[in-house]
Amino acid sequence: MLEKLKKLSSARKITEFIGSLEIDDLQWLDRAWHLQARRNQRPELSDWRTWLLLGGRGSGKTRTGAEWIKAIVAGNKLFPGDGAGRIALVGGSFADVRDVMIEGESGLLAIHDKADRPKWLSSKRQLEWPNGTIGYAFSSEDPEQLRGSQFGAAWCDELAKWPYLDATWNMLQFCLRLGSNPRQVVTTTPRALEMLKKLIADPSTVISRSKTIDNQSHLAPGFIDYLTSRYGGTRLGRQELDGELIEDRDDALWTRKMIDDLRAKRPEELQRIVVAVDPPASSGKSSDACGIVAVGRDGAGKCYVLRDATIQQASPIEWANRVVSTFHELEADAIIAEVNQGGEMVKTILHTVDPTVPVKTVHASRGKWLRAEPVALLYERGTVHHVGAFAQLEDQMCDFGPNGLSSGRSPDRLDALVWAIASLALQNNSRPRIRTV
After folding, report:
1. What one-character-per-residue DSSP string does 343-358 give?
2. What residue ranges do the domains of the chain occupy?
3. How far apart are CA 240 and CA 21, in angstroms?
4. Which of 152, 136, 133, 195 is nearest to 170 (CA)?
């Protein structure tokens, strides 16, 4: 079939030919990646160690990573790499590896024909190909899982949102020691992280860049137009749609290095936990997100950001349910609710879901920047830690400007964070309860 396609001289003839195919041939054509892939989805035939694919959301990064793994398992010479029978599949969490890299629509199971499709053994966290090659699933939430392992190749997905990026990456490098030339492919939307900058500067790295619009034919109608109208030209849009690595802004209160240096695995004992909510002014598809952030404080006065439970385009009862469920899951002491937008109605909605939850209402009398400054000072003093990574929240923090906006929009997640930390560290609080989380 490939030879027939090469001989066709026009788009019309190609269309007519494809329309005449039987279902089996169409399925083959759908899986013929070497015919579909864009230039930025094909690896260089050079002696690289890392192939870094920086792309916007939906730009085809996952499919590219999966196709590279498929090709090196099959020994396709157009895709350099030698898995040496053992391949590491590393994602932000085990669920990310399973749901995106393996079982996702562009994942490894979906792109294989039945005859050569690997078998996914979820309980063993292994993917077994018919030729004996094994893929091992790893979560960046537990870098020590990689210790003692060895591989000939690795696929790292969404590296920029890994909770313990440096530790996981460093551990993986010690494991790439099988085969004639160990290689790794990294597929990620970029963020201004020191680890990613070092990887870009590494002479053994080759880089491919792609934009969301490059993959428009495979996305829902109107998706590009909607996101471009909403985020086009903003720092967030340049990062998430165009795949640009956007540096920290000079006038921001927070930097990524500041946050990374204060990241923690978990606090030992917390005396108080609050869940702060910044309700949107409206509901429905055009509404802002409802910022929901949980923070705890230990006996030394240090604060720990525990969860970003922010919910998008939710009705009042939906975001209230999210707030209350987060409160109970973390065994929190209080809900801190900003009432500028909804007045006492905010408290009423929360008590509709659970009349027993303690709700403390707060009212913004100063601008967002002035409210955020003393909280940012706590970060500078090293008294606020993020337990894990909160990519969207941290993006808002590092793009928050003196105009009170982040990427041109109200920073809902940041607002909730500021209210939570202020209530714990900048005010007098009630007697403590000691617990672990």
Report:
1. TTHHHHHHHHH-TTS-
2. 31-240, 256-425
3. 38
4. 195
